[in-house]
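To start, one record:
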Amino acid sequence: MISKTIFRQYDIRGIVNEELSFENSKLIGYYLGLHIKEKIQTTPYIIVGFDIRTHSNMLFEALICGLNYSNCKVLNIGLVATGVNYFASFQEFKIDNQTIKPNASIMITGSHNAKKYNGFKITINNEPFFGDELLALYERILKNQNIEIPLNLHFIEIDAKSLYVDYMVNQFSHLKNFKTPFAIDCGNGVANTVLCEILDKLNLNYKGLHLEPNGDFPNHHPDPSNEKNLEDLKSLLKDECNLGFAYDGDADRIAVLTQKYNIKGD
């Protein structure tokens, strides 16, 4: 039985293997795929990316089984930050000698929640899929849960990260060689799947903490809105750096610190 509680206002999220399982993630993929097809009236190309949580790959496989069964095309962008996922949904990609513009995006992430959580953030035609639409998806699944969805892990692999890095370096070229020292704390989330490459190409003066993605989050929980998770970053601001930036697990939440202030982020 699929639980209504995982269908929240802006995303689908729950405790993995209790509320969010392999089987109900296949159902979510299938009925979401059908909804997208009905909305755009053609075969959809759907961007799918995931964060570093230990169960993200399992949910990815379940989700794309459902998407494939609904005859959608999965564009796998791999381990990415949520911002890269959204960015990719606005790009065009060469696939089989065709130029393809994605019709939807799904990001598999537990965001800043405890590591037992995971879920799906969804856009269709570059608009968020939320609220009443999520509840309607739940109702559709609830009435049609007894279908067998075969294992089908087919996807088209695409590189969105290189496009994102190039875009950000171009957009922030006016900061190149900026010498003010600052620090970043990625919290072992996915921020550094692109972040340090961008900073290095801009030749910025930074120190990095907990850069390596690790779904066990061995240093601290990746939620920069919680003061206790900022202690490592604050230690660098006492003497060495004037600014600090801390990211959550999927890098769509940020805290900005100075030597005197914690500027609450979002």
